[in-house]
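SEQUENCE-TO-STRUCTURE ENTRY
===========================
What this section holds: a protein sequence and its matching fold, both as plain text.
Tokens: labelled as protein backbone structure tokens, with as many entries as the chain has residues.
Question of interest: how does this chain fold, as expressed in backbone structure tokens?
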Amino acid sequence: MKIEHVGIAVDDLDSAIQIYEKLLGSSCYKREVVESEDVVTAFMHAGGSKIELLAASSPESIIARHLEKRGEGVHHIAFEVEDIRAEIKRLKGEGFTLVNEVPKPGADNKIVAFVHPKDNCGVLVELCQSV
């Protein structure tokens, strides 16, 4: 339907919030811990989309590994979908590799599933649906 948000991996969430609030002229409207991913997120509006800042809450988290390998920067792009299960099925049928074949709870009152970056020119894609 649209780009829902761009996820950015950061080392220091508080510092990143200050930077992006200045950059976007928009305040952080939500911080949330996503325990299943060992991540702390912060959201802010950017026009009709959002920016999601992601910081590791555990050294074992996916974000911690991402930061170790690649440093700070874009982690994923998220697309809003109306029916995530149908979209997972469609993409699987098109030959995409799904990281999650079953949607799981995500941040910001969404269910999410990820499409592996090897099939998307190196970009991790998140599908998200409001619940």
